[in-house]
Amino acid sequence: MSWRQVILLSCLSATLLLCMLQEGTSASVGSRQASGEETQDGTKQNIFMQESDASNFLKRRGKRSPKSRDEANAENRQKLRDQELRREYYEEQRNEFENFVEEQRDEQEERTREAVEQWRQWHYDGLYPSYLYNRHHI
């Protein structure tokens, strides 16, 4: 085959393929006449609002207009709830840290007391009673 026949054959097969794909797409989506205008309008009504309702919704409160009492109360309740949750969280964190510090301090005091006791036992010469019995009482 010559190169002209190859090009002609490839163009013909591409055209045939595009025609088949176009028919398949239109069949899967459907045309307006086949689906009917009534079903499309019904779908529109389920998804979109009427124009008057939409304009009233947008005009109800602009950016600079004051909030209604219900909106302000709802915002205040949410802010108070957030503050309470934040306060509880930080209180819990503070309690955990205080417990940790107290445990560390107790462990350090125990180690220090043991070290001092060992030092006293090591340096005790036996001539005097131990330190606990040799305190000066006022």
Kindly describe this structure.
By secondary structure, this protein is an all-alpha fold. It has helices at residues 3-29, 32-35, 37-47, 51-59, 69-123. The model has no long low-confidence stretch (mean pLDDT 78). It contains 5 helices and no strands. It starts with a helix and ends in a 15-residue tail after the last helix.
Q: Outline of this structure?
A:
By secondary structure, the chain is mainly α.
Average residue pLDDT: 78
Percent helix range = over 70%
Alpha carbon gyration radius: 44 Å
Label the structural class. mainly alpha
Give the ordered list of helices and strands: HHHHH
Tell me the strand percentage band: under 5%
User: Largest sheet, if any?
Assistant: none
> Shape from CA axes?
elongated
Q: Helical segment tally?
A: 5
The strand count comes to 0
Alpha carbon gap, first and last residue = 126 Å
Poorly predicted tracts of residues: none
